[in-house]
Every structure is written in structure tokens, then in C-alpha cells.
Automatic annotation (TrEMBL):
The keyword Metal-binding does not apply. It comes from the Eukaryota. Its EC number is 2.8.2.-. Belongs to the sulfotransferase 1 family. Pfam families: Sulfotransfer_1. Residues 1-155 form the Sulfotransferase domain. Keywords: Transferase. The keyword Transferase applies. This is Sulfotransferase. It is an enzyme of class 2 (transferase).
């Protein structure tokens, strides 16, 4: 099992834009409205912190590899090498480069109309890291940090996210 996790602040930011772009999902007039719903567990897909907490039970299983979105963005070649090794797949240098190129956000966004039809533009928006800084105010940032610590701060997944997000920022 490959478990891909992401900074909860960027998850919230991404879900905000996704929700407002998908008519079957609730839309939000303002970021503040969305943030309240996200933090009070009123998302149609559940609470991200609870999701992380549940997955943390399996973080040490030998058949589970956890990687962060931030790791993959920072060093996609190393990420693909580690994933391939975990699944016992040997790649030539050419195959490695092909996987890295085709799995890049830019490549997936470019091909999204072919692969995802009309939803392509909604699913593939920016693909960046730290876009949350464009939405969060100081109070929201502190509330998210507090919720992170309460739910996953002392866990293996929490430590992995904290290192990737806070120590490398």
C-alpha cells in the first residue's frame, strides 16, 4: 500500500477550490466559511485529521509505504526510485525518467482533458506546495497547528508531515 499524505493546510486549500468547482459538492462563499466547515468536521469526505489518525495505525506495517506530496515535489526522481523499490520494480534510467516526466503535475495537468474529461481543470489546479499561505490568516494558521498537534502531533505520520512541512519550509 502506498500512502500519500499532504500538509493539512494545503489539503484544506485544495479542497476549498475543488469544492467550489464541483457542483455536486457544497460550495462556500468565502474561505472563512470553508475553514470553519473543515475544522468542525463538516466535510462530505470526512475529517482529514481523523483520516491521518486512522492510517497512523498502519504506518509501521511492512506492506505500507508512506510518502508526502512535499517529498515528491522536492525530489521526484528519489520518490519514484523509492516507490519502485518498495514495490519490487526495477527501472532502467530511461524508464525512471519516463515515469518522473509522465507523473509530474505539469504533465498530468496538460493531459487532464484526455484522462479526466471536463473534470481535468478542477482536479489539476496548481499542484504546488504552501499555497495555503495565500488564504490562511494568522488565527486560522494557529487553529490548524493546534488541531494538527491534537490529532497527529505525536504520531509517526504527524512527525513525517511536520518534518516535511515545518522543518523544510
Amino acid at each position: 500500500i502506498l500512502l500519500l499524505i499532504r500538509n493539512p493546510k494545503d489539503v484544506a486549500t485544495s479542497f476549498y477550490h475543488f469544492s467550489n468547482g464541483m457542483s455536486p459538492l457544497p460550495s462556500y462563499e468565502t474561505w472563512d466559511d470553508f475553514f470553519i466547515a473543515f475544522m468542525t468536521k463538516k466535510m462530505p469526505w470526512g475529517c482529514y485529521f481523523e483520516y491521518l489518525s486512522k492510517w497512523n495505525k498502519y504506518a509501521d506495517d511492512e506492506n505500507v509505504m508512506t510518502i508526502t506530496y512535499e517529498e515528491l515535489k522536492e525530489n521526484p526522481v528519489l520518490g519514484v526510485k523509492n516507490i519502485a523499490a518498495f514495490f519490487g520494480i526495477s527501472l532502467t534510467e530511461k524508464e525512471l525518467q519516463t515515469v518522473v516526466e509522465r507523473s509530474s503535475f505539469q504533465s498530468m495537468k496538460k493531459n487532464s482533458q484526455k484522462t479526466h474529461g471536463a473534470f481535468g481543470n478542477i482536479l489539476f489546479r496548481k499542484g504546488g506546495v504552501s499555497d495555503w499561505k495565500n488564504l490562511f490568516n494568522e488565527d486560522q494558521n494557529e487553529k490548524m497547528d493546534k488541531a494538527f498537534e491534537e490529532h497527529v502531533g505525536g504520531t509517526k505520520l504527524g512527525a513525517k508531515l511536520k518534518y516535511e512541512v515545518y522543518c523544510k519550509a
